[in-house]
């Protein structure tokens, strides 16, 4: 039971420390929408999404007013379209993406995730249709998000998919070049993707999930930063304890919102994802947490250790506050969405290579990173392969959401707008990996015993 006292305590965090519920995400299964005819399939998915999601936005707004808790986004995730559309007789899934976009606009959600494929062991015909449809789909829609899972710790890495996704990212950038290649901000390439992630752009409704479910994502970098300022000169045990206690309080906010949303919509409560996801707002930054820990800038020696401390203790505090903590839960490090990260890049403290090292211990991976538009497809694939290898070997979720900004070079600024923010274009290692990527095939899964 969540008490009134806990609600009152969170009000201070909301007013003074930028605490918010980042998203209420409704997961919807589209398995029963399957049909071979494109028009029928589109009608089925549109009708189901608009029927189940009809009251989602209004419910979120009602809860905001009742509890005074900002709920920034209301979103929907659906069954990966490559699965739901497996029997479809069509050469392109772009019309399906347009239907999803239309449904998202009708119910008023910010984003809809699930234009996705799971290809970690190989491709079906439907997977290939979907992947080849991604660039155009993201160019012609506003709210649709896409993801592709190219590896797991149990199956290894599909390097044919890695090579293909390098070209897909580049083509997506080209088709949205008039918007600083922003289509790539809606595309995530995963290793070890999870089925209940409420955060975009990587959310999809897994096949092991119920018919419909409510997942909530809570974010509170500002709250953690403020708490750490109170223990500025204390030891690491005090630091860790402070993060755990703060994460507990933040998770309880998500628990309250998730339970109330579930009850009012008559939809099962799935999970609370406690991920410290920053925004471009001052005081809502992961980089500022590092500074509160004692680092001059994000990227300074010790940054990976600081992130490991943060990620682990956020999880420890969260699991004590809710029996349904899931999703990704930890700390995100998207460059464009964190003003402190942006400043660190501009000062030369934070590089792509340091960010890659940090992904070994964060919740996801290389996120919202702008790179030169003339970066080759092979280099993009190499970056994806490196990140997937980190996830595969360490048995954790990793991802790449990288944006080759067509027409821009190192040091120039790419503008994405809203929560996506802006980012300085970062340099990329110029040496070629084409011979490695061109090998094709699959990297076998690592051994799961004899752990060192």
TrEMBL record:
Coiled-coil stretches: none
Highest taxon of source: Bacteria
UniProt subunit comment: Homodimer.
NCBIfam families attached to this UniProt entry: PRK05313.1 (NF003700)
Family in the record: Belongs to the UPF0210 family.
The protein's name in its UniProt record: UPF0210 protein J41TS12_19300
